[in-house]
Design a protein that fits this description.
The complex is a heterodimer of chains A (500) and B (365). Helices cover 70% and strands 1% of the residues of chain A. Chain A is an all-alpha fold and 500 residues long. Chain A has a domain at 1-130 and 244-391. Chain A has a two-stranded antiparallel sheet with strand order 1-2. In chain A, helix 1 (7-25) packs across helix 17 (349-371), helix 5 packs antiparallel against helix 14 (294-318) and helix 10 packs across helix 20 (408-426). Chain B has 365 residues and is of the alpha/beta class. Chain B folds into two domains: 49-147 and 286-356, D-Maltodextrin-Binding Protein, domain 2 (3-Layer(aba) Sandwich); 149-285, D-Maltodextrin-Binding Protein, domain 2. Helices cover 42% and strands 18% of the residues of chain B. In chain B, strands 2-1-3-12-4 form a five-stranded mixed β-sheet, with helices on both faces. In chain B, strands 7-6-8-5-9 form a five-stranded mixed β-sheet, with helices on both faces. Residues 14-42 of chain B have low confidence and may be disordered. At the A-B interface, helix 10, helix 15, helix 19 and helix 21 of A face helix 1, helix 2, strand 2, helix 3 and helix 8 of B.
């Protein structure tokens, strides 16, 4: 079983992992950007060396997103949106170091589980993945959307309404089937051909709106030292205690992430959303998710790193990337004259083995690089906000500007969605539901149109395939559960009010 | 305390404003030539390349970094950068963004658009506005050819070419063929030529059973083919050839036919060989890649770029690298500025004649 390994490869992988983590940790910079930026550097490398660098960037980029998500409630990548739900509340409780360590360990475990799946089941899974047609993909996206209902516990109607507004805003673009613009004013047509870009929306809603809110508080309220965050490390990280009773959650989330990665065009955001909503559905204390418990954090981080191995399955066995980052990796293979596709593993066993070993090395390096300096990272939360936020705002602006390789429109979108986010919060709507609607809206429409096209405009196509019945059942269970949970939350609220 | 907060707020605001102002600077290089100033000579006074030591942004009309647009632009940028001494970077921004960027760029050569026929086809098909018509830009030298645009179907289908597919529809009146194309692109043009040929040869009934599925990347088109949601897809030869080999799973196995240009693989029939015609003339449509510049492009710098491109075209390493990815380099004569402009304009006129009589997407879908 020949493969490439040696100090020089590990050094390159380490470089990739560190840079990837930095890209992932900066809001608006992603693993995809990191891989795209460093792709030209690999011209001078051998295929094996290039793989170590690019996979390092990929693993680091996906993992780095948890740092700002936990510490400042700004998801570094779209797939770490769910990490903010429990990670940041933990940090607010003075458990930032513990939250980071749980997130990093979960990421490592997720990456390793997906690597095992990649190593042993690639050909089988690739054959299985292509049986998922547009119908199943549409239903999976719909299933992911049901997380909106689960997240807006106690205010379900508001959550669904704002989520649908997000879906609607995702459709403000040029409809590719007939080239007609939808809901786009004339003067914005050239900028809005592909609609609002995800990153300015994401960062605007989470980061800029938060800064606006802080500005308001700072200007109108007294701000004393007592208000400042104190990291006391009330509860230290203990692997056995923190992961006790979580193994089903870990394995389920990692496999969900891997599975979503295997399905081309579904994406990491859907993976972490479904994993989070499943963690909530199966939890003994679903009401605690979102208040700062490890369960939600583990689900989110295990699933988004589970995606890494999964997304390589269709790339290497079908020549079809599982996510946007692996789409860039295709370029690296092509530059080296290697055709990824159904005969890749048979024709290139050395490269295939190197992919597996490189992924293993990169996951281990990611764990080491992130886990041990965590004490330093956790100190970010101690920086006074008036000093931290200008730096964050600068990084957000750079990230937004870099979204489409330097476009001022995206910076204006960042500010616009900052205001939108602020208004959403002011009217007490859940901002995460709007974002989830926006993230999934484009794919939802794409697959819906594909279903309609395939079945000559008839909706019966959504019900005729046996595999789709299973997903329909999951959707119904998820919605019914969310409905009952919402009723329970309202009842609890009423009881609490009556007691007072 | 309030004073400190005010200071922090002011600093944040000034940093944001500084960034916004910096981001708004559209010039991508440290150009010393004022915008619009024409040098009028092939070389500058020192005889060196005007772009030496500068950063050059190359925008392409695709968002993919694995497709032919990126690969060709990247190769040309590297060789051209070596020849002229600039530091180039390819930005895969997509057609509308690339056209927008090049139309607003300074005419100092620090921003170049490299793309193929879709740059003018997207205007003809109405996918982007008339403001991006070739008249409002400067056409530069040709840089390469990808002759491999082709149609692909599952290996098990009973037809082996577009002509046979139309005949199969005529023989099977209950059947319909769904063909996946991309709107405003070479695939759109090649499809409508076949559609009109089928209509002319077999009549309205057969043509009405040829349906276009519009949109999607090559990967999405392949998935539609494997799903059974598309019967035929338009894709690049190099992206499908792997699936035509022995040992590929039956659901994935493909057959390729009707390349729009002429590929080196003689086992694959071209549209010309298949007898597909437009106005009685054989239809041959290579994907031609060329450079675009802003309307007020400095002629002197443009001539320098063209001369350098002609040298690159003669470089055996460049030719070999292009051939390795199944693309063809153009000759130095073909890359000449006037020859390139004549060629691209003639090609646009031919395309315009097709678009003028082609049915709209509402009829085709």
């Amino acid at each position: 079983m020949p493969f490439a390994i040696g100090p020089e490869y590990i050094a390159v992988a380490l470089l990739g992992v560190v840079i990837g983590i930095i890209f992932g940790a900066i809001p608006g910079m992603t693993a995809t950007m990191a891989v795209a930026v460093f792709l030209p550097l690999t011209y001078a490398y051998s295929m094996e060396m290039a793989l170590y660098l690019l996979l390092g960037l990929y693993v680091g980029g996906i993992s780095g997103g948890l740092v700002p998500a936990i510490l400042i409630s700004i998801p570094g990548t779209p797939s770490s949106v769910c990490t903010t739900f429990d990670g940041h509340p933990m940090a607010l409780k003075g458990e930032s170091e513990r939250a980071l360590k749980i997130g990093i360990t979960s990421s490592f475990i997720g990456g390793m589980i997906s690597l095992v799946v990649l190593a042993f089941f690639t050909p089988v899974l690739a054959a299985w993945a292509i049986k998922f047609s547009a119908v199943e993909k549409f239903l999976i996206i719909l299933f992911a959307l049901t997380v909106i209902a689960a997240l807006s516990r106690g205010q379900m109607l508001r959550g669904i309404w704002i989520g649908m507004l997000g879906v609607l805003m995702a459709m403000m673009n040029q409809f590719s089937v007939n080239n007609e613009y939808r809901m786009v004013p004339d003067f914005l047509k050239s900028e809005m051909q592909s609609g609002f870009q995800l990153f300015p929306v994401l960062i605007g809603l989470f980061a800029v709106s938060e800064m606006f809110q802080q500005c308001e508080t700072g200007m109108h309220a007294s701000y004393t030292k007592e208000d400042a965050m104190k990291v006391e490390n009330k509860q230290k990280f203990n692997f056995f205690r923190d992961f006790k009773g979580q193994w089903i959650n870990v394995v389920r989330s990692a496999l969900l992430g891997t599975f979503m990665g295997i399905l081309p065009g579904v994406g990491g955001s859907a993976a972490s959303l479904i994993a989070y909503s499943q963690a909530k559905s199966w939890s003994k204390h679903p009401e605690l998710l979102g208040t700062g418990v490890p369960e939600g954090l583990i689900a989110s981080e295990t699933s988004n790193n589970g995606l890494t191995g999964g997304a390589l399955v269709p790339l290497l066995s079908l020549g079809i990337p599982g996510d946007s980052t692996t789409a860039v990796l295709i370029g690296a293979f092509m530059l080296q004259g290697i055709q990824v596709g159904p005969l890749f593993i048979t024709n290139n066993p050395d490269v295939w083995n190197t992919v597996l070993v490189a992924l293993l090395v990169c996951n281990i390096l990611m764990f080491l690089v992130m886990f041990f300096p965590v004490k330093l990272l956790a100190k970010i939360i101690l920086i006074p906000q008036e000093r931290l936020y200008p730096v964050v705002l600068m990084m957000c602006t750079v990230g937004a500007y870099a979204t489409l390789n330097g476009r001022m429109f995206d910076v204006w979108c960042l500010l616009f969605f900052g205001i939108v986010g602020l208004l959403i919060k002011k009217f007490h709507f859940p901002v995460s539901c709007f974002l989830i609607g926006f993230i999934l809206g484009g794919d939802l429409e794409d697959y819906f149109i594909q279903v309609l096209t395939a079945y000559d405009g008839s909706l019966t196509g959504l019900f005729v395939r046996p595999m789709s019945w299973v997903i329909w059942a999951l959707i119904v269970i998820s919605v019914v559960y969310a409905f009952l949970d919402n009723r329970k939350a309202k009842r609890q609220e009423k009881e609490a009010a009556a007691k007072q | 305390m309030k004073f400190k907060k005010l200071i922090a707020l002011l600093l944040s605001a000034s940093m944001a404003v500084g960034l916004l102002a910096g981001c708004g600077n559209t010039s991508s290089g440290n150009s010393e030539t004022p915008s619009g100033e024409q040098s009028g000579e092939v070389n500058n006074a020192s005889g060196e390349s005007s772009l030496k030591g500068k950063r050059v942004r190359v925008v392409i009309g695709s968002t993919s970094t694995g497709g032919d647009s990126y690969m060709i632009a990247d190769m040309v940028t590297r060789y051209l950068g070596e020849e002229m001494g600039f530091n180039g970077k390819v930005d895969a921004v997509g057609n509308a963004q690339a056209l927008d960027a090049i139309s607003k760029a300074d005419g100092d050569g620090t921003t170049i658009m490299m793309f193929h026929d879709m740059a003018f086809l997207s205007v003809l098909f109405g996918a982007v506005g008339e403001e991006y018509a070739l008249e409002n830009l400067t056409v530069g030298p040709r840089i390469g050819v990808n002759p491999g645009g082709c149609f692909a179907a599952n290996a098990s289908v009973p037809y082996n070419s577009l002509a046979e597919a139309a005949q199969w529809l005529a023989d099977n009146p209950s059947e319909t063929l769904h063909v996946n194309i991309e709107s405003g692109s070479a695939s759109h043009l090649c499809f409508v030529v076949w559609y009109m040929w089928a209509k002319e040869t077999y009549g309205d009934d057969v043509a009405s059973r040829i349906k276009a599925i519009v949109g999607g990347t090559t990967d999405e088109k392949k998935q539609r083919l494997w799903d059974g949601n598309a019967d035929i897809i338009y894709a690049d030869y190099s992206s499908c050839v792997e699936f035509t080999k022995e040992g590929v799973d039956a659901q994935l196995a493909m057959k390729i036919f009707d390349t729009c240009g002429q590929v080196a693989d003689e086992s694959i029939i071209s549209m010309v060989e298949d007898g597909i015609t437009f106005n009685g003339e054989p239809f041959d449509f290579n994907k031609d890649f060329f450079m675009l510049f802003p309307k007020d492009m400095d002629e002197g710098i443009l001539n320098e770029i063209t001369a350098a491109m002609q040298k690159v075209c003669e470089n055996p390493d460049f030719q070999a690298e292009m051939a390795n990815l199944m693309y063809a380099a153009v000759t130095a004569e073909e890359a000449d500025l006037q020859a390139s402009r004549d060629y691209i304009n003639a090609k646009r006129e031919t395309s315009n004649a097709i678009v003028a009589v082609a049915p709209g997407l509402d009829e085709l879908t």
